[in-house]
Amino acid sequence: MFVISGPSGAGKGTVRKALFEQMPDLVYSISCTTRQPRDGERDGVDYRFLSEEEFKKLVEEKKFLEWAVVHEHLYGTLKSDVEKVLEAGVDVVLEIDVQGALQVKNAFDDSVLIFIMPPSKEELERRLRNRGTEEEDTVQLRLSNALKEMEKMHMYDYVVVNDSVLRAALEIKRIIASYNLECCL
């Protein structure tokens, strides 16, 4: 299990998509969220968009491998999704927040945590603003949270700077390939 996380605006989703173009046999675990879809996002493809009531019911039923409140919304990964892929012997990639990544590491010691880092704080802010999907107060909240999340990157197995999407994806591909090689030896 490979976990990609980092601050909002670091380019996690963009790097993950580039990685999957290079490694189509990987399986992406689709997270659940209570936030509203952004333009172009599709339910069941980008996220499973749930009501807060539906999400909390799954929490009560202990259906999540990890879950957290992020930017005032609930996010989580269903245990059943991950277990099904791992039981089939296939590598699974989770793209989740820092809180969730640390929960996964506690539950699965052999999971590999990869922190996506923006090249600079200025670039991070530029990316968040250029999205054009959030109001100013949301941008400020995401920037504040990003600084807190970056303080935890030392808890990860790898840190990948996303100064180029292709380069970052290739670096993660090498990380995954090295683990697969170790398993075969």
UniProtKB/TrEMBL annotation:
Pfam families: Guanylate_kin. Residues 1-177 form the Guanylate kinase-like domain. It is found in: Cytoplasm. Keywords: ATP-binding, Cytoplasm, Kinase, Nucleotide-binding, Transferase. InterPro entries: GK/Ca_channel_bsu (IPR008145), Guanylate_kin-like_dom (IPR008144), Guanylate_kinase (IPR017665), Guanylate_kinase_CS (IPR020590), P-loop_NTPase (IPR027417). PROSITE patterns: GUANYLATE_KINASE_1 (PS00856), GUANYLATE_KINASE_2 (PS50052). Belongs to the guanylate kinase family. This is Guanylate kinase. The gene is gmk.
